[in-house]
TrEMBL record:
One of its GO terms (cellular component) is cytoplasm. Catalyzes the reduction of 1-pyrroline-5-carboxylate (PCA) to L-proline. It catalyses: L-proline + NAD(+) = (S)-1-pyrroline-5-carboxylate + NADH + 2 H(+); L-proline + NADP(+) = (S)-1-pyrroline-5-carboxylate + NADPH + 2 H(+). This is Pyrroline-5-carboxylate reductase. NADPH binds at N58. One of its GO terms (biological process) is L-proline biosynthetic process. InterPro entries: 6-PGluconate_DH-like_C_sf (IPR008927), NAD(P)-bd_dom_sf (IPR036291), P5C_Rdtase_cat_N (IPR028939), P5CR_dimer (IPR029036), Pyrroline-COOH_reductase (IPR000304). Keywords: Amino-acid biosynthesis, Cytoplasm, NADP, Oxidoreductase, Proline biosynthesis. Residues 163-264 form the Pyrroline-5-carboxylate reductase dimerisation domain. It is an enzyme of class 1 (oxidoreductase). The lineage of its organism: Bacteria, Pseudomonadati, Calditrichota, Calditrichia, Calditrichales.
Length: 273
């Protein structure tokens, strides 16, 4: 359904660039059908060389594309929506906003149009087609939601949620990449301290975390069930785990996620730049 559509990714920074790479690598979307915008267009020249269209003018991009994937910062959203409003055709365009903390209602109010809007919360795993993308829409937008689901399913897993859960999806899924990477970094630092060179410590830590995640996803088990299989009685794992818990490991992760969730409600401010 979406494969023959033209797609604009508006505001190509870290996330927009990751989405572009993932869509191209999926083989399902041709870069010639994807236009990328940002104001400093020289910074996305590499995408032009990779076959994508690149454009400084958001209005031209919107006129060319059927689907508008928005990836600007929350504080940049109002200015962008004001600029885009004249080009948004409610009968043609589907807007997919990846912007944290800006509701569908706020987007439509700023556009002053009853546009079709889907919210998406992917993560930078899209670049390697391993994103966890939460999607939400409202009312009668089923076809648009299915289109968004189709797009993001080519770059990872998708889950449809209520819009009220978007801030939670941001903290757990989108910020989560950074949280788990920090855990991997800490593990590799431990590995260095007990004798591995940095590159080998990182390989062991990263591959081990990949295996741990796949155990959960493929066996559909609870982490504690998998942990029980690692913790040999009187063994070394349980001693390490208990020491980590005494130091507040689970508590730190939970408190960090709650802090990010709380902040997601406060990000949308008037025009930063
Ligand atoms: N990074 C992540 O992992 C995730 C981010 N998000 C959300 O995605 C959004 C983008 O995040 P992120 O990629 O990290 O941020 P970045 O700052 O890296 O990207 C934003 C990009 O938007 C461009 N931009 C700003 N205003 C305009 C405009 N008017 N027209 C065209 N381009 C514009 C900027 O480039 P220039 O200044 O050159 O125009 C910049 O490259 C945020 O809302 C964030 O909350 C959601 C999930 C995950
Ligand atoms: O840090 C941020 O605000 C964005 C939202 C989720 C991931 N990055």
């Amino acid at each position: 359904m979406s494969r023959n559509k033209t797609i604009a990714i508006i505001g190509v920074g870290n996330l927009g660039g990751a989405i572009a790479r993932g869509l191209k690598d999926s083989g399902e979307y041709r870069p010639q059908n994807i236009i990328l915008t940002r104001r400093h267009i020289d910074r996305i020249a590499e995408f032009g060389e990779a076959g994508f269209k690149i454009e400084k003018d958001n209005l031209k991009a919107a006129a060319w594309a059927d689907l508008l994937i928005i990836t600007v910062e929350p504080q940049q959203m109002n200015r962008l929506l004001d600029e885009l409003a004249p080009a948004v055709d409610v009968d043609r365009h589907v807007i997919i906003s990846c912007v944290t903390g800006v509701s569908i209602r706020q987007i439509k109010d700023r556009l002053q149009k009853e546009a079709t809007v889907v919210r998406a919360m992917p993560n930078t795993g899209v670049a390697v087609r391993e994103s966890m993308t939460c999607l939400a829409t409202e009312g009668m937008n089923g076809p648009a939601l299915r289109m968004a689901e189709e797009i993001f399913s080519t770059v990872g897993k998708t889950l449809i949620i209520d819009e009220e859960q978007m801030a939670a999806a941001t903290a757990l899924g989108a910020c989560g990449v950074a949280f788990f990477l920090r855990a991997i970094r800490a593990a590799s630092q431990g590995g260095i301290e007990i004798g591995f060179p940095a590159d080998k410590a990182m390989l062991i830590a990263a591959q081990t975390s990949l295996g741990a995640a796949r155990l959960l996803l493929e066996n559909q088990t609870h982490p504690e069930a998998e942990i029980d299989r690692v913790t040999t009685p009187r063994g070394v794992t349980i001693s390490g785990l208990n020491t980590m818990e005494h130091q507040g490991f689970s508590s730190a992760m939970i408190k960090g996620i709650v802090t990010s969730w709380e902040k997601a409600f406060r990000l949308y401010r008037e025009d930063k730049d």
